[in-house]
Amino acid sequence: MGFRLPGIVNPKKSLIRSLSNGKQTTSKTLDIPKGYFSVYVGESQKKRFVIPISYLNQPSFLDLLSQSEEEFGYNHPMGGITIPCSEDTFLDLTSSFSV
Predict the structure, then answer these.
(1) Rounded to an integer, what distance in angstroms lies between the CA atom of residue 38 and that of residue 65?
(2) Lower Cβ count inside 10 Å, N or C end of the chain?
(3) Taking the CB of residue 73, how many other CB atoms lie within 10 A of it?
(4) pLDDT level of residue 6 (50, 70, 90 thresholds)
(5) Residue 38 and residue 15: Cα distance in Å, rounded?
(6) How far apart are CA 26 and CA 28, in angstroms?
(7) Which pTM value belongs to this model?
(8) pLDDT for the residue 71
(9) 28-45: b (≥16 Cβ within 10 Å) or e
């Protein structure tokens, strides 16, 4: 009798980025794996990142979510959570997280 253990995920590959034109489509919601959610990051052009829900355990990520709530409330212009920081800042912050 055997069982399968989930593979160890490379932290650098756990962050997935895709360009967004701001239009919400059904296919975008279907390409998010279980255990992940999408956020939009950037100042002028927003980029979509699919990130693991384990980031919700990180105090610095929760600070970003609080800033997002202050700036956008619950009405996010992209249809998903919009993080109010530059892409470089977001990548620097999330690269220090363990998955």
Answers:
(1) 13
(2) N
(3) 8
(4) very low
(5) 10
(6) 5
(7) 0.65
(8) 80
(9) beeeeeeebebbbbbeee
Nearest Cα to Cα of residue 67 among 52, 86, 53:
86
Structure tokens at 50: 């699919």
pLDDT tens string 35-80: 999 999 988 888 999 999 999 999 999 998 898 888 877 776 666 7
Token pair for residue 22?
Answer: 């701001």
Q: Which H/E stretch holds residue 70? A: helix 59-72
Closest CA relative to residue 45, chosen from 76, 20, 75: 20
Single-letter residue type at 31: D
Q: Which residue has the higher pLDDT, 1 or 95?
A: 95
Phi, psi of 85 (to 5 degrees): -155, 170
Q: Considering just the CA atoms, what is the radius of gyration of the chain in Å?
A: 14
Q: 3-state class of 37 per DSSP?
A: strand
